[in-house]
Known about the structure:
Keywords: Membrane, Receptor, Transmembrane, Transmembrane helix. One of its GO terms (molecular function) is G protein-coupled receptor activity. It comes from Plakobranchus ocellatus. The chain crosses the membrane at residues 44-65, 77-98, 155-178, 190-214, 245-266, 286-309. By secondary structure, the chain is mainly α. The protein has a single domain, classed as Rhopdopsin 7-helix transmembrane proteins, CATH 1.20.1070.10. Helices cover 78% and strands 0% of the residues. It is elongated, with a radius of gyration of 24 Å. The N and C termini lie far apart (75 Å).
Amino acid sequence: MALNHTDTYRDIFCSYYNSNTTCQEPAEDDILLIERICSANKTVAYVLFSIALVFGLPGSILALITVSRLPLKPSTLYIGLLAISDFLSLIGASLTYYKLLTSDPIEEWEEFSKWLGRIFQAFSHWLLALICLERFVTVTYPLHRVKVYTLQNTLYTCIAASALCCIPFLMFCLHYLNVVTYSKFRFISIVIYLTIYIIVPTLLIIVFTALTALQLRRSQQRRRTILTSENSERASKMEADLTRMMFLTAIFFVILTLPMAIIHILDQAEYYLMHIELCPVKEAVSYFLFYSSASLSFSNHAINFYLYLLGARGFRKQFLLVFSKKVKFQASATASSCTEEK
């Protein structure tokens, strides 16, 4: 397969050859290898993202319905908003992600919708960080938690997090519309985007999850205090369930998003700081890792409902209670209508 005039390979979208570099022009075997890597990338990314959509969209709706039946508290408010944000993240990504995988040119509205979707993706990350912080305060300072975490303060933290997540979108608009012409503005905006989108929330999630686990392990007496501080057995069980839900979502968040974070940071560092231009085969491998890790990270927005069901007995019981009532109501309505017809 020969090179065309733009120094890219025919029908290959995940690699290119720049004749101005020290890289040798790839042989026929190398081009065939690149084709296989591109094909594998497309398949893996399609499958991972499609699975996230199929399970994540209904899962977010079911999580929101179930949480809405629980007592309104800071923790349940966070979880409800997380379900909404996860749903919107997947919807926003679905508008352009499949097109990005084939490197087809995207229209202007699609470029803006991609960055709007990233607002909700970042907001989900920050909501999980806030949940971890709330659980840490609950575990470490159970007597002060009620004063610190009022519903009003919780709303304020959510508003502040959402405003913070809008900063990368605003910087993208300034760059895309050529409002700012500073030569290094794109690099600065990418650094800010990665910092807000993944670096800081991931660090906060890891730190507060580790500190919470350490506090629970250090003192069994403190743990008993936490689980009985609500003056009712139901409330104490709910607190224990919320803590387990936090641990599960935090652990899987790190597993699913850490590869993407590392690869994205290395990719930008190679291009902007070290000025490394990869040769064609390595470029294809880098492309594969980049999009496969990104597709995997979308599972983070799809898996929470199922983690709640598996790890939180109270949530599972509430879910079954809510939907068993709906089934009974529909059955009784059907029976009454049949009786009236007779």
